[in-house]
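**Protein of interest**
===
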Amino acid sequence: MSNQSPFGGRTARAFPTLPQGETIASFETYAEAQSAVDALAKAEFPVKELAIVGTGLTSVERITGKLTWGRAAGAGALSGAWFGTFLGLLFFIFAPSPSSVGILLSAVLIGAGFGMIFSVVSYSVNRRRRDFTSVAQVLATRYSIVAEAAHVERARQVLHVTDVPEPAFPAPEASPRARATSAPSAAPSSPAPAAAGSDTPTAADADAASEGDAAVDDGAAAGEQPQGLTYGEALDAARRAERERRQSGGA
């Protein structure tokens, strides 16, 4: 959703981005980081160039107590009483009358009653799934103050920081494609000549071996059955060969 300007134009929407720069100091709590920013502001430092970055975010839900019927009814009555007070004040301010005080008290009581009823009904529905009250928080393990590189030295002098803290954002790793592109390509190596007396086969040995294999294949093909026959044809050919061998043996 864009914000409309009074002149009918649309202002550019600022998308959330990570702050750029170097880490001035790092603290364990947000209160310490806030105190450091206050100290820089008192030293006339351009605080608009600063950013507090929390790293190691963790979700924490603190249990505040057990939820009972009385506690649910009391919380509902209190919230309803506040709403009734708001409505009663509206009548008291914009429609003053001799009975405005009575209307205000009636609005408070009616709001407390309806709030108590709604809270008790809600608790009766969810009491077996959630019988406690809690407060959810998102905390960080470290809080770093980040600024542009041109202001880092002055900020560290004001805060009396001597040690250079670790960067708030880890350096991005190069993609596998970028690493493959940046790596020098290895030149194809030419085959080394065979040394005298070594076991490496030469071209003449390879030709002789191929001729020997061809002769073996021809001899094996002479005793094999003709290729391209079906199972029945091969069986008939084997029977005829067996019959001819027997007849030649009997003669």
Remarks:
- Confidence is low (pLDDT under 50) at residues 5-12, 185-206, 214-226.
